[in-house]
Design a protein that fits this description.
This protein is of the alpha/beta class. It has a single domain, classed as Glycosidases (TIM Barrel, Alpha-Beta Barrel), CATH 3.20.20. The protein is built from ten helices and 15 strands. It has an eight-stranded parallel β-sheet. A hairpin with a 3-residue loop joins strand 11 (228-229) and strand 12. The longest helix has 18 residues, at 194-211.
């Protein structure tokens, strides 16, 4: 699904802007352009390329389980009560991680002109409450962008930016994610090029490790979609296969954990097209509509000999949603949303030992967006911070580490 999210600064408040309408996959995928010419389907019989990591995976990426929420945050001078209330809600639910998105362009609007005050105001609060932090860095400044699909004109500039972020928050931020949903053309400022992101990933990985060698680096999470048009979107499984095959797999060395997204639309967690389709109506005839799509991405990793962990950095179910493209939310009740979220955690903990972290989309965006914004119905808290059934169910859910 096209589930684009960008951070915007409005009145000192940082939060993802409204996603664009959903891009629906076609039942039969169209041929992929030369932008991902190395790609094959997950069922390809082509021998896999063995992955050789550049460095040992940090111990923190191999142990424990990250129970996380995607959270809205405020970086303005008056945001402390909001950020504390957010941290309290995460802790009260028994979760121990938060994921935030950070716009590079908001913090370095001109070359070398940095303003990290918004992050200085919020990140220490999370740490005070004993929370671990995953920061997803997105959105290059206009002066740094490359519109050919290479994403950033000068990779040394991005490497320096990631080094600056990681060094500034060494010991405070445990994990950094290099970009988000890079298989959406608008997120890479031009036609989708797997090699463009691969080079960005290497620069980001090296920058983070230079700034904080103990930090975890998570690859950008692909958005689930069956669309194959480099000017719009590329199927996530097809993109991942192309990434593993690119230049003999050398670019896959530059992450510690593979990031994924799982958008189940209206389908229960244990369903998957075609062997166990969801109930419908609609949104059921392609595996990208299902939570278990993650299994197919894992199969690609294993085919290439990659046994590193996976984090599902966004997953959830929206209830009735007023935004165009999210009509499937009307078929999910608040009680079903609650049950599905708990069942998803149970499925992953029981059947997917390779998943070592899951971040619910989302905790509290309902508290900062209007009633017609699509992000609100995904939230597990109401606009007045009162718990929805999903928050209560997640709080009561056992959380073995």
């Amino acid at each position: 699904m096209d589930r684009r999210r960008f951070l915007v600064l409005v009145g000192g408040m940082l939060f993802p802007a409204c996603r664009s309408p959903v891009v629906y996959p076609t039942p039969t995928a169209t041929p992929v352009s030369s932008s991902v010419s190395a790609a094959r389907t997950p069922n390809s019989t082509t021998p896999g390329t063995r992955v050789e990591q550049a460095t040992a995976t940090p111990p923190s990426a191999r142990s424990g389980f990250a129970y996380g929420f995607n959270v809205a945050w405020r970086g303005d001078e008056d945001g402390e009560p909001f950020n504390r209330r957010t941290a309290e809600a995460v802790r009260a639910a028994g979760f121990d991680w938060v994921r935030v998105q950070v716009q590079w362009e908001s913090h370095e609007p001109q070359p070398g002109q940095w303003d990290l005050r918004p992050l200085d105001r919020v990140l220490p609060i999370y740490a005070e409450y004993g929370l671990k932090i995953l920061v997803s860095v997105v959105s290059a400044p206009a002066w740094a962008r490359e519109t050919s699909g290479a994403i950033v004109r000068d990779l040394s500039v991005f490497r320096a930016a990631m080094r600056r972020f990681a060094a500034q928050y060494r010991g405070l931020v445990q994990a950094w994610q290099v970009w988000n949903e890079q298989n959406i053309a608008s997120n890479v400022y031009g036609p989708i090029r797997v090699d463009g992101y691969a080079r960005l990933l290497r620069a980001g990985y090296e920058g983070v490790k230079e700034g904080d060698s103990s930090a975890i680096v998570v690859s950008g999470s692909l958005t689930p979609t069956g669309v194959n048009d480099p000017n719009l979107a590329i199927d996530d499984a097809l993109y991942l296969e192309a990434f593993y095959q690119l230049d003999g797999g050398q670019w896959t060395r530059y992450f510690d954990i593979l990031g994924t997204h799982a958008n189940a639309t209206l389908n229960p967690p244990d369903t998957l097209w075609p062997e166990r389709p969801g109930p419908g109506p609609g949104w059921r005839d392609h595996p990208s509509f299902y939570f278990r799509r993650v299994e197919q991405l894992r199969a690609i990793m294993e085919k290439h000999g990659d046994q590193r962990p996976v984090w599902i950095t966004e997953f959830g179910w929206t209830t009735k949603n007023p935004a165009p493209g999210y009509e499937y939310g009307q078929y999910v009740s608040e009680e079903q949303q609650a049950a599905y979220l708990v069942e998803a955690f149970d499925l992953a903990r029981r059947a997917w030992p390779w998943v070592t972290g899951m971040f619910v989309w989302n905790l509290n965006f309902s508290t900062i967006v209007g009633p017609d914004d699509e992000k609100g119905p995904w939230s597990v808290l109401n606009a007045d911070w009162s718990p929805r059934p999903a928050y209560r169910a997640l709080s009561a859910m056992p959380k073995p580490r």
